Amino acid sequence: MTETEGQDNARVIAGRYRLRRHIGGGAMGVVWEATDQVLDRTVAVKQLLLPPRLTPEEAEQARKRSFREARLAARLQHPHAITVFDVADDDGKPVLVMEYLPSHSLAEVLAERGSLPPAEVARIGAHAASALAVAHAAGIVHRDVKPGNILLGADGTAKITDFGISKAADDGTLTGSGRFAGTPAFLSPEAARGEQPGPESDVYSLGATLYAAVEGRMPYGDTDNQMALLYAAAAGRVAPPRQAGPLTGVLDRILQVDPAVRPTMAELATELGKLASLSAPAKAGTAPSEGSRRRYVWAGAALVVVAALVVVLVIMLPGSTGTGAAPGQSTSAAPPPPSSSADPPSPTTRTVTETASSTSTPASPSTSASPSAGSATQVVSEYYALMPGNTDAGWERLGPVLQAQGKSSYAGWWSTISSVSIVSGPRMVDADTVEVTLTFVKKSGSRSTERHHLDMVERDGRMLINRDSGAL
């Protein structure tokens, strides 16, 4: 559109929808925030754009198709789909009047954050799949599922939008132009080959969208060459995911070239919902401060310190070879792990480490209780690969000291983190301690890089992370 925003502020469509500000758009249309002057509510108005250089006959066919598909979109009512309130006429062009959701598209979020953790992607996917499943049951195929058409509200709700190019599966076609609808980067193989897309095509496109969200890269490669994308899409040539974690198996089933072997959208919604439930739901608001995070970790661990003091006291009773030192000052207590940092651990961290270490049972001369470098570092790598999306599996990899903090506090803190990545390490710094440097990105948008010393312990043949000295 050529009008300025100030001029458009005065425009009223269909006698009731006053345009206020431009909030988005693309090849299919321009979206405005507007006021419904009859119901006195904020709405989103999408002015559908006709493709350029159409013949008069093609333009008329496109207008008819747009009006009809707008009416189809209005048939869909679901909490995870943007509701279409009205289909208005703006000088012969169809206008969708829709629910207004203060939000960012998944495409915008990915442009800012790069990728999202598997549990968050599963939650977004479950929301979108549940709405698409209802659409499919009503005979509506979206045909353009992509990150730009999934909106994320401030409370974490995901809603799918833009059914403007969808059509009912039981309706005839008015296209007549041979053009395909959809975005090449997220097309299913059959759609890329020019075949009629069905519900299975939406399943594939949602899978390609989730792949991009969790991997931080396009399923068919990062290229602007549309023909290359179409060629890769037609062949279903998708690189195996590397950081999807628990989503890997689901993505593999969704991104099958043969539509017949993909799950239905309803089945996908159920499976993604189960994966999302493995982690605490996303919470709106500001993540806790670093000091609060340490209190979460060590509040429960303080209980273990008390227990350790009791154990030391029992050891010092008659019959023990101890010197009668006060609890917590046993001369047999192991020293804290050495740190390569110029800044020593805080006094609180050092006290907890020294006292809790006093409960360790010394290894016999013939048997070493220390983990090997390979096994301990592998456990640490695998642990952070799970986080923050799978706190249940992460919890099973913790030793008794860290588990003393309580699972709810543990999951609660991880729910404030959007991603964690290993910057350096993990590496052994002594027989029982692994050093790893991590970058945490919080859901509030803040980022911190921290070096942690993790004390390892072996229980029932499994290597566990028993203590975390926190940021050093």
Report on this model:
Helices cover 36% and strands 21% of the residues. The protein is elongated. The chain folds into three domains: 1-100, 2-Layer Sandwich (Phosphorylase Kinase, domain 1); 102-278, Transferase(Phosphotransferase) domain 1 (Transferase(Phosphotransferase), domain 1, Orthogonal Bundle), CATH 1.10.510; 290-360 and 369-468, NTF2-like, domain 1 (Nuclear Transport Factor 2, Chain: A, Roll). α4 runs antiparallel to α9 and α10 (290-315) packs parallel to α11. The strands form four sheets. Strands 1-2-3-4-6-5 form a six-stranded antiparallel beta sheet. A four-stranded antiparallel beta sheet has the order 12-13-14-15. It has 15 helices and 15 strands. β9 and β10 (158-160) form a beta hairpin. With 472 residues, the protein is of the alpha+beta class.
List keywords for this structure.
single chain, 472 residues, alpha+beta, Phosphorylase Kinase, domain 1, Transferase(Phosphotransferase), domain 1, Nuclear Transport Factor 2, Chain: A, 3 domains, six-stranded antiparallel sheet, four-stranded antiparallel sheet, 36% helix, protein serine/threonine kinase activity, ATP binding, Prot_kinase_dom
